[in-house]
What does this fold into?
Amino acid sequence: MTYQKCPIPDAFAVLSGPYPPDDLGFKSDQLQILSNSRDTPWSDPGMHKHTASDEAYMVLEGDITLMIEDERVIVGPGEICFVPAGVFHALIHVTPPYRGFVIRAPALDDKVSRDFAETVEQDPAD
It folds into this structure.
């Protein structure tokens, strides 16, 4: 197959990556796409970095607060935030209703975690 077309779901879904969980997503060792649509807040469990892949957060509706190293960055509708490989970051707050994507390339198992306590206090809104 030379291409795959699929609907954007109204929930969390892996649209592409090395191990898509169902028939909705497509297999790609080069590109991971996560789609997210939620009406409730959430956050990452801790800081992490990717040793060899870049990550981009694209917001369509709502907003997200990222902790990138020691800086809080708010990404709103129509904005994208790029996080290069090797930079610790975490999604620390989501303002619902939220719709957006996370795109990471290449799609490697290169995530390294670091506890929030080692960096800064978590957002009190969480």
Observations:
- The domain at 13-113 is CATH 2.60.120.10 (Jelly Rolls).
- Residues 117-126 have pLDDT under 50 and may be disordered.
- The chain has one domain: 13-113.
